[in-house]
Amino acid sequence: MEPAVVDAGSGILKFNHALPEYGPEVIPTQMKQVPEDESSTDASLLENVIVDPVVRGFIRDWDAMEDLLSHVLYTGLGWEIGNEGQILFTDPLATPKAVREQLVQMMFEKFNISGFFASEQAVLSLYAVGRISGCTVDIGHGKMDIASVIEGAVQHISSRRFEIGGLDLTNLFAQELRKSNPLVNFSISDVEKLKERYASCAEDDAAYQKIQQACPEEQHTLPDGQVIKIGRERYTVGEALFQPSILGLELHGIVEQLVRCISTVSSENHRQLLENTVLCGGSASMTGFEDRFQKEASLSSSAIRPCLVKPPEYMPDNLSKYSAWVGGAILAKVVFPQNQHVTKADYDETGPSIVHRKCF
């Protein structure tokens, strides 16, 4: 049986057997609370209780995560109780040690797995495009990570995590849509779908300013029959990544943040890093984002400008959304056959801290 690979984000969880050419299965990470006793009078009260096992990239609700992984592994991947396999998890940048230890503990003690490995998402996203050194700009649902990687190792001194992601862009889009459609009652799930369909990046700052003056509007019918109009709001969402002040944040734009992070690394590595830049995460697939990123990069004050790596043609479509999972599937084919992973014997002998020695 192929090892399982799991990339648990705040918005969606990617999982499958370690077959990179097929890509992952995808399910929402968010869950609805279900009463244990269906006849309970509290059943109707629990119907709309939402549980978020993962918040801003890190596991926060361990009981919910256990339930979610049980569904993924036994129902989704067909594992059998008593015959569990090996599993590789992707680690977000700056994952606390306690979270890594609790995860490995849960997998061995609750799921009785035969082998465990974890690797940082930035390293895996580079593996997915055939690189071992470079930079990743990962815009997930709940966080944005900018990381530099040299020879397969994240350079933490020059990497930064920002608590801004697709969720914040969705909330911004909802706010803007309510201004132009004041009589419409939007649900966040409706806005999330509208963002995926309509959100765009203007070509540059000048183009964005023109759009603010005049922008053609489109009509869209919501599932409940309400008709809304969408115009300049669609561009405000993408612009927030290049002008975070739109979100009320005192931060530099995404390209400038990347250049500033890399400036803390030895200058002899700048070219190797910046010329192998990978965009990943759901928001990176926004219409016009890659072109805008490249244009901003060409205007950068840096002596060496960021240059994007194109994924190999044989990789699955939408690789940017799933690159950490794909890199994990590639790595799983190496670490488990070569016995570089944490075994049950390792765990029994050392305990959860073994994860820091064997998964780095």
UniProtKB/TrEMBL annotation:
This is Actin-related protein 7 isoform X2. It comes from Sesamum indicum. InterPro entries: Actin, ATPase_NBD. The lineage of its organism: Eukaryota, Viridiplantae, Streptophyta, Embryophyta, Tracheophyta. Gene3D superfamilies: 3.30.420.40, Actin, Chain A, domain 4. Pfam families: Actin (PF00022). Belongs to the actin family. It comes from the Eukaryota.
